[in-house]
Design a protein that fits this description.
By secondary structure, the chain is of the alpha/beta class. The protein has one domain: Glucose-6-phosphate isomerase like protein, domain 1 (Rossmann fold, 3-Layer(aba) Sandwich), CATH 3.40.50.10490. 48% of the residues lie in helices and 10% in strands. The chain contains 11 helices and 7 strands. The chain has a 5-stranded parallel sheet, sandwiched between helices. Strands 1-2 form a two-stranded antiparallel sheet. Helix 5 packs across helix 8.
Length: 294
């Protein structure tokens, strides 16, 4: 079969045309890839950076721990600054409903709005009880100072340190007290007082953290009950709200005491004294106790 020159020319032109189109596509593809690798223009970069900045400005510093919730009794920041919303790494079944979230370090965070509401509820209830019938119990050292200042302000009775069995249940006892309501700073430490109050059918108000049980607790106030500043703030709020419910003051400013006045003050030498006691105990230990074991 003989191929004519015209046909060869046509085939050649078609092939060349296809090659040119293929080369054109390759060039265009490379141009697109090169453009993608090129750094963005200044205008584009500024637009990308400005978006997150705008979002950060709108976001409150407290949003992570509060979800943007607001409180009424005090500014939300006061709860956050004193760590009143910080619980423990352990959470009891009773306290799950009061937990807002779990932080990356494993600590459970209490809901500040619930804390605020419960302090108001507790204050309203305690204000209805005659002041001489309000009994505050605190075995924990950090809770004794705020409990004492609180009791002095509202006219309540205070029981600190070891709770003597029979205080609420034995009328013949020298330390017998007949309460109308019992306020405890920590259920585990004040369990004897809670048990006796329950036996004589007296309501119990308790400051509770994420690890506490709510057994025999009538009004639970979810708060950090282990921190000095947190306990001071909690008792200060209760004091001012009780006085306002009674009509003894109208505004917070009328209460001369500040949260700092409620705070347990660390004394110089506390650690040194404990260290001295430990060293004396070590010296009294028999030799076989100090002997290394292999």
């Amino acid at each position: 079969m003989t191929v004519k020159k015209e046909e060869i020319k046509e085939i050649t032109e078609t092939a060349e045309k296809k090659e040119m189109e293929a080369e054109k596509k390759i060039v265009e593809k490379k141009a697109v890839e090169t453009k993608e690798k090129e750094p963005k223009k200044t205008e584009d970069i500024q637009l990308v950076k400005e978006e997150p900045k705008k979002e950060r400005k709108e976001k409150s510093p407290s949003d992570d721990d509060t979800g943007g919730k607001q409180t009424l009794l005090v500014e939300t920041e006061k709860y956050l600054n004193t760590g009143a919303h910080i619980g423990t790494k352990f959470k009891s079944g009773d306290m799950k409903k009061y937990i807002y979230k779990v932080r990356k370090d494993g600590l459970n965070v209490l809901d500040v709005q619930t804390l605020d509401d419960r302090l108001k509820m507790a204050a309203k209830f305690i204000a209805q009880i005659p002041k001489e019938k309000v009994v505050v119990v605190s075995r924990k050292v950090y809770g004794q100072t705020p409990a004492a200042v609180f009791s002095d302000i509202i006219g309540a009775k205070i029981l600190t340190g070891r709770f003597v069995p029979g205080t609420f249940t034995n009328p013949q006892g020298s330390r017998f007290v007949e309460p109308g309501v019992v306020l405890v700073t920590e259920p585990e430490s004040d369990t004897q007082a809670i048990d006796e109050a329950t036996r004589v059918r007296v309501p119990v108000v308790a400051l509770v953290s994420t690890n506490n049980s709510l057994k025999n607790i009538d009004i639970a106030v979810p708060i950090n009950n282990k921190g000095r500043k947190s306990l001071a703030l909690g008792f200060w709020i209760l004091a001012k709200e009780i006085l306002k419910e009674r009509g003894e003051i109208k505004t917070d400013s009328e209460l001369s005491k500040t949260p700092e006045d409620f705070e347990y003050k660390m004394k110089e030498g506390d650690e040194e004294k404990s260290g001295e006691k430990k060293s004396r105990w070590d010296r009294k230990k028999p030799a076989f106790v100090r002997r290394k074991r292999f």
